[in-house]
Amino acid sequence: MKKNIIAAVVLTFFSMSLTAQIGVTTTMTPNQLVQNVLLGFGVTATNVTVNGSAANANIPQGNATFFTAGATSFPIGSGVLLTTGNGIAAIGPNSSSSFTNNSPATPNVSSDVQLNAIAAGTVTNGIVLEFDFVPSGDTIAFNYMFGSDEYPEFSPSTFNDAFGFFLWGPNPIGPAYNATNLALIPGTTTPVTINNVGPGAAQNPAYYVNNLGGAAYATAIQYDGTTVILTSSAKLICGATYHIKLAISNVGDQAYDSGVFLQANSFSSEAVEIAVATVSGDTNVYEGCTDANLMFIRPQTQLGDTLIINYTIGGTATMGVDYNNLINPITFLPGEDTIVLTITPTFDGMMNDNNEYIIITAMTISTCGDTIISSGTLYIMDSIPIPIIETDPLAQCQNDSILVSANATGLFPPFTYSWTGGQTGPTAYFPTIMGTMTGTVDYYVTATNSCGYSNVDTVTITLNQTLVVDTMLVGPATCEPVGYVSGMVSGQTGVLSYQWTGPGAGNPAFIDASVWQNLSSGWYYFNVFDNVCEVHDSIFVPILNPPIAQFTASATAGCDPLTVNFTNNSQNALNYAWNFGNGNTANSTTTSSQSQVYNGSSIVRLIASQGNCADTAFVSITILTCGCMDPLATNYNPAANFDDGSCFYPLPTVEAPNVFTPGGDNVNELFFLTTTNSTSIELTVLNRWGNTIYESIGINPAWNGKTKNGIDVEEGVYFYKYKVNGYNEQYLEGHGFLHLVR
User: Fold this and answer.
1) Which of 70, 261, 530, 584 is the most exposed place for a label (fewest CB within 10 A)?
2) What is the distance between the alpha carbons of residues 315 and 578, in angstroms, rounded to a whole number?
3) pLDDT computed for residue 622 by the predictor
4) How many domains is the chain partitioned into structurally?
5) C-alpha–C-alpha distance, residues 402 and 398, integer Å
6) pLDDT tens digits for range 510-569
């Protein structure tokens, strides 16, 4: 006879992590780890124990913990971690090749028969997690990964940390299971151990993952090596009771931790499971904000075949109207264990239909002939509660404005805030209403989450503003403290007290008087108190005819030595203190002129004072090094920084030969002038009839005894004239006769 089994809905959710390490939680009891984490679909479990203790016992050292991969690359998203040491020691990164964390001592399991049977040495500390279970199908399967710091240097060795999954119960295809180890290398009867799976050629390296040197999951976990994800499975009898032991231990010593990661919800039997996954981790999805994943998951034992699943959609929400159309039926291809459909709710703008929901139901017939129904429910929400905590301040005699704040909580932060009057942000300032005897004023704040959902709350300011400052009076001061301030208030309740603060005239504060006299110039602050309120105001005491220091210099720059006359143009002063910057000072009670000689640059200061008041003026005097700055001049001064026009230059000189012999013997071949202090020479040669034979302008022109056409001239006497140009537009002119001999 067939029986109906209503399967539990497995609710999973997406988690986000800001770390590259796995997370480990040590607060769950063994019973919680089995019931809430390890078990999947089609299995019920009882009698959970750890190392022989009851299911709700504390787990020493956290040897059995819940783990989550977060945002790491670790391939198992979450599950149960069994370790030979402390579970938190599995947290990455891989920082040590010999990591050990089992202090205080981990429970000794050396008496465990099954662990001793598969170990290559003496079993020491570890953990043994056991429970009874009843499958709804004819198989059981679960996924796991083994990791260890014994890798790779002790693989193989006698330090062969042992683990196994040992099953007891009836076997439908052979002898009864009697501590049968399900942790086997695929397709063999060889147990998965450090010696049997490792980097060596004879150690089934296809199932080994190196985790050293930044490889694989080096930032996620501490272990130096792991296996790939492996699956343990066994044929069972539907509805029969079985016992399983999940155990791991150190061998030979208690150093170098090892651990086995059991995938969450993978310990399952027959049937297709339906899971609804939402970002928030519950069964609610929000219009215009979040989607949900509808996941169909079949057990690992069914992966070899194609499976078609028809499912029904119920509830009050309408597909194609309230959410998108979904594919039905769905088809699992060989090797495919999960199919995900995305449900996207339609934003309809209606804010009062939060009772819409979807029920997804799938029915499968197990190999045992049982009808197994799996279902999941998703609620479509069109409003999001946004609680707002706000301040409701009491404004007692506020003269200016008052600060209010709001803090929104709830789903989908961050929140934005808008206030009455257009202010934004979590805080705002609102003016108080002077003169109001008592009462309240309401302002409104709207908090909006990242999806656009909003809530409005009221901020109430309670006013008690009967005490007010009516009038502030002031009398100016001169350079003597002759000023005053006065303040008058109204609306007091009970006894008034006053407090003034400011520059004062000897006393830092003057209490219990509305007038303060004999004051210097400056700001004065008025505080008044009655039996209820406090008000504040301030006023500035100005100064009359303060001294003004100012003077002019007859010259502010010149050659060393420089005589400078200073004219005092100061106003409202009685005393004058000069510092001329050249080592000289002077004090005067008149604005008489001053005269000083400067050999170097200086800053001149004048302080003009009247009583307690003073003013200061400054003038800079720059002394120059004067002289000739032309390097060509006879009196050139390389240290000068101001050219005073004193440069003078020597006159040019000329020497001229009276005979030259251009006969081709390279001796006295050219006629030229020998000069000094010249910049250029203008030379002209004429014959006896006054005809120009040669003329040239240049640095040193020379005649070779030829005409302009290159013909040798005859021997004889020739006339020459010249103009020698010198520096600074000086020149020398002359003439003479020369005798050409060939």
Assistant:
1) 584
2) 98
3) 92
4) 6
5) 7
6) 667 889 888 888 899 998 888 777 888 999 999 888 999 999 999 999 888 899 999 999
Report the side by side order of strands in the sheet with 594-598. 551-553, 562-568, 594-598
pLDDT digits (tens, 9 = 90+) for 183-236: 999 989 999 988 899 898 888 999 999 988 777 788 888 888 999 999 898 989
Q: How confident is the model at residue 5 (pLDDT cuts 50, 70, 90)?
A: very low
Burial profile 344-360: b = 16 or more Cβ within 10 angstroms, e = fewer: ebbeeeeeeebebbbeb
Question: Given phi > 0 = left and psi -120 to 50 = alpha, else beta, which region is 639?
Answer: alpha
Which of 423, 439, 464 terminates a domain? The answer is: 464
Predicted local distance difference test score (pLDDT) of residue 475 = 87
Which of 429, 464, 499 corresponds to the end of one domain? Answer: 464
Token look-up 């690359």 returns 73
Considering the domain architecture, whether residues 725 and 711 belong to the same structural domain is answered as: yes
What residues have CB less than 8 Å from 350, skipping those under 6 apart? 382
Q: In terms of domains, do 536 and 392 share one?
A: no
Hunting for tokens 């009491």 — which residue is that?
394
Which residues are CB-neighbours of 709 under 8 A, at least 6 positions away? none
Relative to beta strand 371-381, strand 4-6 is parallel
Residue 738 is encoded by which pair of tokens? Answer: 């020369």
What 8-state DSSP symbol labels residue 728?
A: G
- Could you tell me the CA-to-CA distances from 368 to 46, 88, 365, 488 in Å, in that order? 22, 42, 8, 97
**341, 325 contact by CB (below 8 A):** no
Global pTM exceeds 0.85: no
Is residue 439 domain-shared with residue 527, that is, in the same domain? no
Cα four-point dihedral sign 384, 385, 389, 394? positive
Domain that holds residue 708: 653-740
Strand (E) or helix (H) holding 113: helix 113-118
CA atoms within 13 A on the CB side of 183: 29
The whole-number pLDDT of residue 510 equals 63
